[in-house]
Amino acid sequence: MDKTVGHKSAYAYLYPALDPFDRRMLDVGGGHNVYVEQCGNPNGIPVVVLHGGPGGGCSPAMRRYFDPSIYRIVLFDQRGCGKSRPHASVVANTTWHLVADIELIRQTLGIDDWVVFGGSWGATLALIYAQAYPENVRALVLRGVFLMTQPELDWFYGGGAGRFWPELWDRFASLVPVDERDDFVAAYHRRLFSGDHAEEVKYARAWTAWENALAAIGSDGMTGDAPAEYARAFARLENHYFVNGGFLDKSQQILHPDQIAKIAHIPGVIVQGRYDMICPPDSAHKLSKLWANSHLIMVARAGHALSEPAISAALVHCMDRYNSAQSFTGL
Predict the structure, then answer these.
(1) Is the pTM of this model over 0.90?
(2) First to last CA, the chain
(3) pLDDT-based confidence at 93, cuts 50/70/90?
């Protein structure tokens, strides 16, 4: 793999834009309807794309990491975000609901097994799904690994990342009274679920801006205000999951020996930005050491975002390699 990526945008490394051949709303229960789309080759290698957040939703660019003549590309908006409805709802919205939704989508589309492709929270969900249904996963392709652990939350919401971005951390922290600053996730939770829409949007935009500002290695920290309803869904869902520890008990932790054993046979690749401020590389490194059938690609000059050119180049290369060899050997 050529590890030198020039000053191109991420889009330069992607396949051309394409439209879905199938769009649908799927009733997944609990009052939720999930938006699902399919692109590419209806008879191709199935791949399901899991977006980040929780609450980020899919974008048309996510269709373009795969050769559309080879892959049957399945995207969906997780409960409560994107085109799924009800918007910003946390009712019947847990990790295990999302795992069940992925499996229902697979069954509904008549897919035997598929490649699971996810970044950030999408990588978390990909791993948990694979551990729940290992027989249905051909391979895992992960980016910006997040393992849904308390130390990771402490890093990002407890001042660790703020030591590198002190002026932006001050902006995020200053909205919380001093006597509540021992737990910013809980403090924001109270305001994101206050029932006052204006207050919820205010704190949602601050929550979203803190994360967006640190996503790319070349960021100047000036993200602007996210659209109100996007920010409200993103922040409420993300905070809801984090307040609840991802709905994982001790035995369900991704790196628990019993859970790692379930995916030991599944081939996988991990694409990780060396300077990822949101999901630092030690999580990807720990995962790769325990998961014997994985291959870790540490991208030298990249942060967290899918839109990082070197990250996009590496992911497209991995998917091209898999479609030609059905493995990641030789990357």
Answers:
(1) yes
(2) 6
(3) very high
